[in-house]
Amino acid sequence: MFTPMIDQAISFFMLNMAWGLDSPPVHSKYYNQHLSTHGFHPVIATCMTALGMAGVANICMDIGLKRESTKWYADALKMTNKAIMDPEQVTSDNTLFATMLLGVFESTTNDKSFVGWANHVSGSASLLRIRGRQQFETPAGRRMWLQVIGLLTLQCMGMGEGLPSFVHDYNKEVDKWEDTKDPGVRFFHLHIATIELRARILKNKLTDLRTIVDRALELDVGAKEIITDMGKDWSYETEYCDLGTPGVFATSYHIYPHLAAAQTWNWIRYTRIYLHDLIRNSLIAGFSTSPPIFAGMEYIRLLESSTDALYRMQADIMASIPQYLHDTPRVPTCYTNDPHQDPLTAPISPPRDIQNHPSTTRSASPASPTSPFSRLGFIMPPSSSPFDRLPVIRVSGGYSSIWALYIAGATPIATPESQEFIIHTLLRASAEFGINQAKLLASTLKLKIESDKREGTGMAWHGGLGGKGGSGMGIAPMYMPMAGPHLSREDG
């Protein structure tokens, strides 16, 4: 009750927005040079305070505290801009990390526009280019590369753009250091390949429908291989319940063993939605040509299976949400078999030598009052020999889950009932977890639904055809409306 608000803000940040710490030994000069800010570099401590205060302000609906968090944000922005102007600080982990935290601040506070968040993502990406290849020499540098490029990929998807060329060049360095069998790393490359395919189609650089279908199917095989190779420690369980169970769409929901599993599954699901929307729209467009580009039962069956995959991916994303919102009566099974393993230091990546089918089915179990996610999923192993005290930011988790949920509502096969559930769930995420970007996504989805109604779009393919291919905008749906208040530069 009497704890200073600054300490409360940092505590809120560490509990809700971080997995753990990269931390040098407490006796090292790297730790002790910033003792006044708990061992954190001042710009990091300022960002953490702003972000923590914003989270508390959102949940408590405290206008005064929100105003105070904005002041801290302004200070953090000034400090970050000053560091960017310094030829030495511009390439430091602290400066890059500060830009990432400023982006999370926008996700946490801004319920009106994506522009502030997008600007910070672009700023982080610019720093990656300046930092060069030496950034891959440390675990923290490689992790921040993967996180920032993941966010940049989302931004490019929303705008229908491809990734900058330096990303493809530097990604070759990632393969030298990272475990290419890790599901998260494999998804990282799958996501980029999918966004590049969409961009080529939208820019009309790829118009041949057969080529589009073949490439999308090839990427989808890669997505399914990631799932197959995950092993049982990444598996989820399906619980069944009565229709109308609060917080559950339809009659089932999922239980995941840890956060990394839940988010990786949903990453793959929304990427497969991208791919099967391309396949489905290409097939429908090809059936409409004279003579048909696609003829025969093979393509009719492919259309049916692709449509089924879309419904299944959408349903699975919605089934993953109750655990996030604490609506599930069961908790996950611990994925470590070591009885001596401390749950606060267990690695986020499960053992690689266990292979099994990725999902299992169970009947409902008695309710349990404990956390919906095992604490195991919130901790990442510390980096070796860190030079700076850096929180391991949870840029995914709740933030990436709301994007998956949005895509589930924006896909052309979405029904009014599923969209209503998704909008309601996004608003809950905003109110209960203080993620205002969820509220923004809800309003953007409403805008898209109204726009689709006016234009008469929906489950049917719409778009002009020419030669051997189709209009890029018709084949690759734009999930984000390209005009509206969500793209305004006005924050208020």
UniProtKB/TrEMBL annotation:
Residues 358-371 have a biased composition (Low complexity). InterPro entries: DHMBA_Reg_Transcription_Factor, Fun_TF. Residues 337-371 are annotated as: Disordered. It comes from the Eukaryota. This is C6 zinc finger domain-containing protein. It comes from Massarina eburnea CBS 473.64. The lineage of its organism: Eukaryota, Fungi, Dikarya, Ascomycota, Pezizomycotina.
